Amino acid sequence: MTLLDDRPSVSRPPAASGAAGWRGSWRVSLRMARRDVRRHKGRSAIVALMAGLPIAVLCFAFTMASTVTISGAERIPYELGTAAASVMAPQEVAALQTPDVNGQGTTDTPAQRIPGYSSSGDLASQGAALDALLHGKAIYSAHAQGRVMLADGNPPIVLEQLDPRALRTPLATLVSGHWPRNDQEVVVSRDSVVAGLPTSGPITLLIDSTRRQATVVGIVDTKTQTDVFTPIAIGNSYLPTWLIERDTPVTWSEVRQLNRYGLLVLSADVLRNPPPEDQIPVEMRELSGNTDIGAYALGALFLALIVILLTAPAFAVSASRQRRTLALAAANGAEQRQLRRAVLAQGVVLGGLSVVLGGLAGIGAAYVVSQRLPVPRSWQGPWDVPWLAVLGICLLGMAACVVAALLPALRLGRLDVVGVMKGQSVSPPLRRRVALVGLFVTAASTAFLLLAPMTRQKFVTTSPTREACAAAVIALCLGGLMIVPWLLVTLAKHSRRLPIALRMAARDTARHRSRSIPTVAATLAATAAIVAMMISFASYNAFDSRNYRPTTLQGEAVAWGSPDNVGRLDNTEVLAAIHRSQPSYLVTPLQTVTDPINQAIDPTADEPPTDGWATTILTPGCTFTAALEAPTMDPATGEPAKSACLHLSNMGNGMQSGIGVLPLDEISRRFDLTASQRRQVAAGALVLLGSNVPAQVSVGSTNYHFTDEVQQFGKPTLTTGIPTVAIPPHQHAYGAFTSSLGAVATPETAARLGWGDHLTSTALLVRNPSGAIPADAEKAINDQLTNSSFTVEQGFQSQIGNLVMILLGCLLALLLVTTLTSTALAMAEQRADDATMAAVGATRRTRRSMAAAHAYWLALLAAFFGSLAGLAIGQALAKLTVGSRAGSDASFAPDATVFITIPWLPIAAIVLIAPLVAAALAWLAIRKAPKVTRRAT
């Protein structure tokens, strides 16, 4: 007892209590964390990269979206300039609109007449009438497409016609020179994206197929996408407007009054000071847009999950590396909360570093792309950083890093101090109940994703089902994470027959689950994302490919003329361009049977036409009215309507619904007719697209009267007993009919059926007698066109191929980075074991084999089980993608499961090749011999 009593006592300062003690403890922990980050720069850089990358991507995406989205007061310099407002051409009925004019509508009330205004009048009289009504100066503004003729080509440009009364526009500010004084002078935009656009001297413009010589007399600064401002009458490719200049603002109450005249008004004052919702017409309120809180919540949850999975391996290995230090601290009296605080402090420091670097990188990249690089106009806009969204992303990323550090910190409660001090580190016993729960959650979520009905009607249009699908995906991920420990232990028990290196890797990952689980989880999540996206994109492409309708035969072209002043297509420009560039090409005019009411719409007329003519092809059991008015889709179910009619008429506006007329030789060539079929067509048969076409059909025709949006048909005249030649639907057949036709006849047959007086030349079918039309010939012809088009049919071209390759490349890189990062950190932790192996004679080849086996085993497990998870997630995502794609077009109503396509070969390549690549890189990373030291055990 004496010895114990004489033992010297260790005096300790009183423990700090309250908020001051808590702050002091955290201050010390953060200081230690900062020192550890500086000491281990490589590991810290890896954590910052893994956590900062998704934050940078999201900050970039949000900033770019905010920059290119021009709304509210930002629209003023782009659409109004210095004008107080703009008005569109008056309608015949009173108008309804939202304050930003993005929502538009009409009423049944006739519009009040504007004194002195006539739609057929000249610009001067129209402008004077608007001047008096709006108490300001109305400046006409019309935009059109044209081309500028340069030495290396004729690039397209956007032109604005200057008001002849003003010869200037509020949309641009003169920088140098002067405004045009006549139609021989033009000014150009300083910010034009057209390379080589002259800024002085002569310029040659191609407007409405006519070359116009002019002189550049000034340079302007404009926020619009206009390249050239000219007094030349350019036509109207866009809706013409009048810009209103006056000293007083156009208020919302005045806008509502002008709506009574049929005018749609965009006011600068209203954009700056939007009215309260109760002052907006009831019909327009729902068009103002609302925020999908559920989508933002799901996006935030996915961001947090991604950051946690990416950073968890680094924090787990970091905690493993600190075991001895933490055990030493615990042996000297440190409490568990102090140990956890030390680990959490690293998450705070590294999370803050990742957030700052990632946020700055994302915002900076968005600034460079949108403001400094020569990107398309759609990517440009006023620099705008959504600070609230960026702050939310950064806070969420910070929280995710802390959670990733919290997971290993919670395990410190089971820290074996004696074992760690001896150099023994084994994970605690497996919790089988957790694995059972994970198996149940995984099975339930997988069953829901695979079996839930997600067609266009039941899935896309129903928000709760979409949210349930997202919840099932998250549940599958969480359930998979709960299973990972059980998988590692189970596979290690059954690894006896594996090669020695793989056997040791399997057992090592099972023993050190604290660092193996985060690595497998992160790599598994990356693999699942890759496979899910591959299935989604493959299904999307399968849907588009199967529903693709060629415009003409492969390698041939369709040329569309420019519309004239009454809406008819004028093929003069494109025909002249073809003859000039490729005189050997064969051109066949495509005539279609049209409704004269649609070919007599004169925009200058005070009253629209009211009398029309309709014709349709009738099958047995189909009435004339049903053929014209029956819907192609059942609005109740979204499925194709059950009808005996073919829906082929001159009033059809869907794909393969029109009636065309071509010469007999062209019909025979395009459809590969046999000699017997050619004789039938020559004798008056109709060529119809379909598999179940009757041998004979009838044709009905009649006049109708159009009043108050109601068509009153007369008694149709029927021609019966017309033979048919059926062409079964396939890609070649679609191209032979072109995308708009479902029936074709010869000119002689059209005349006998009464169609001869109702034929309109709508397009030109062009082919090269020597083969397919080359790309350089297509460019040479298009360089001479303004409002016309010349398109060569190349077959189905994937619109998302490049995007898919970029995304897959990023995800594959992420998979390799996570695997190699974990392997490198694990190898750094196993330096003592490597030294022991080297001391007993292990060569560098042996140590390389060990490192390669470790990386291969981790990558193989993650790739295999990640692919299984990706198959379930990908099929659900494919249903959503295909359903959304189908929902955008009323002519489609498929069962989404029909189009699900699984790219087995790329998935197999990921499972087999990615682990080999990770193993090879890990094998090459082992270069020098470890430092041999005496081990403590």
TrEMBL record:
Q: Where in the cell is it found?
A: Cell membrane
Q: Is NAD one of the keywords? A: no
All residue ranges annotated as the ABC3 transporter permease C-terminal domain in the record: 300-415, 806-929
What domain of life does the UniProt record list for this protein's source?
Bacteria
The protein's predominant localisation is membrane
Is Transcription regulation found in the keyword set?
Answer: no
Coiled-coil parts of chain: none
How does the protein's chain sit in the membrane according to the entry?
Multi-pass membrane protein
Q: Where is this region: Disordered?
A: 1-20, 99-120
Q: Where is the signal peptide?
A: none
Keywords, sorted A to Z: Cell membrane, Membrane, Transmembrane, Transmembrane helix
Identify one Gene Ontology CC term for this UniProt entry: plasma membrane
A single Gene Ontology MF term assigned here is: transmembrane transporter activity
Q: Name one Pfam family in it.
A: FtsX
Where does the sequence pass through the membrane? Answer: 44-65, 293-317, 343-367, 387-413, 434-452, 472-492, 517-540, 803-828, 855-878, 898-926
- List compositional bias (Polar residues) regions by residue number: 99-110
Q: Which InterPro entries match?
A: ABC3_permease_C, Macrolide_Exporter_MacB
Renumbered to this chain, the Low complexity biased-composition regions fall at 10-20
Family of this protein: Belongs to the ABC-4 integral membrane protein family.
Return the protein name: Putative ABC transport system permease protein
Q: Which organism is it from?
A: Branchiibius hedensis
